[in-house]
Amino acid sequence: MNKNFIWRFVKKLANLNFSIFVLSLIAFFCICGSIIEQDKSLSYYQINYPHYYLFILFLGFDHIFRTFYFALILIVFILSLITCTFSTQLPSLRNARRWKFLYSSCISKTSDYLLKNDSNSKYFFTSIVYSLMRINFFVFYKNNSLYSYKGLYGRVAPIFVHFSIIAVLLGSIVSFLFSFVVQEIVPQGEVFHLKNIINAGFYSYLPDDLVFRVDNFYINYNTNGSVKQFFSSLSLYIHNYIILHEQLIYVNKPLRFFSVTLYQTDWQIDVARINCGVNSNIQKKFFKVNINGQNCWLLNIPISKDNNIFFVVFNLDNNVLVCSSSGLILQEVNLTEKFYINNIAFTINSIVPSTGLQIKVDPGIVLVYFGFFIMIFSTFTSYISYSQVWIYINVKSLSFMGSTNRALLFFEQDMIYLNNIYSYHLLSRFKRINTLLV
């Protein structure tokens, strides 16, 4: 009873319709995850989906690829592929490797590609064997019957496809359980640990012995003033010992250290260090605003009870605009340049930028890449045609039958080559025999 239940369960898992249904569910959830923005704040969904945000949050559509039911569907699909591979694909491969000898009584009933040559008894068995081997067929013989095939690797391709999909899905599950993403905004010259977690798997582990330092940050601009590229120079320490000193990263060139990857993602202007008056040094934080569609950073300094001045910076290469509280530009100054407001001396000693970094650990990415590599390899392998040839030889005739699973024109071309090689080899043997008889 238990064996019958297990066997019915395995057959259900390996069923093609069931696999297509599970794959359709995966495709549906992937489409939902592509349409609905992932990992946003509650206010984002309330603003953009005012009538559906409760439904989205309840079903976990805001982080659909990290939900338990999506992982469960992937596991079911993996089991379906595994059972199909071992119950259908591997037996089919073993069956393709078996020797299938046919005889004259059954050749005409099973023919996909049929050719029958009638001749006298002077057909030479070794000639046809030699001809088949010349066009890369494997040849087997039993009781005046020949069986040959080539292109068995084409029958292996579906198995590789299954294993590649399994590797990709397993990589996704490993990422779901063990990966984490950290985002940090770090001022130039500061040291930071991994602490601002964006998302993390149930079994992920943050390495607490890693310490990073932002040694330098700078920006390259285009001629029109837009940002061309921004760079961060980083140092890596483990247990207070420097491991990596000043590796430069930028967008599309991350820092990789074993399983940890640091990406350059953003930047901002953080603080200004200002000398005010005779012996007063202050440090004020900039705030990002948008003026006429252009991003800029500003800070305010009170110079009296009812009056403030504002410092405005558009990028790190520009000078600093000094504005009144009404928005009037008072003057434009350079760094370290002394200027006066209400007889008070000011000097902007430095402007400190911050770099935006994303730190990611994803152990499943190796499995995903490996799975796609196998899939690409199996795609090329699947174009190999699996061809079979049966030949039955008796005293008065040679009966021939061939079949292929694809590329019929190439198979017919192979058969033409076979006939030419066979005829040439046979004719050569006749000439040698005649020469010996003479």
Automatic annotation (TrEMBL):
Primary location class: membrane
Keyword Repeat in record: no
HAMAP family the record matches: CytC_Ccs1
Role played: Required during biogenesis of c-type cytochromes (cytochrome c6 and cytochrome f) at the step of heme attachment.
Compartment(s): Membrane; Plastid, Chloroplast thylakoid membrane
Sequence ranges assigned to domain ResB-like in this UniProt record: 17-295, 351-411
Topology in the lipid bilayer: Multi-pass membrane protein
Name of the protein in its database record: Cytochrome c biogenesis protein Ccs1
Native source organism of the sequence: Periphykon beckeri
Assembly and oligomerization: May interact with CcsA.
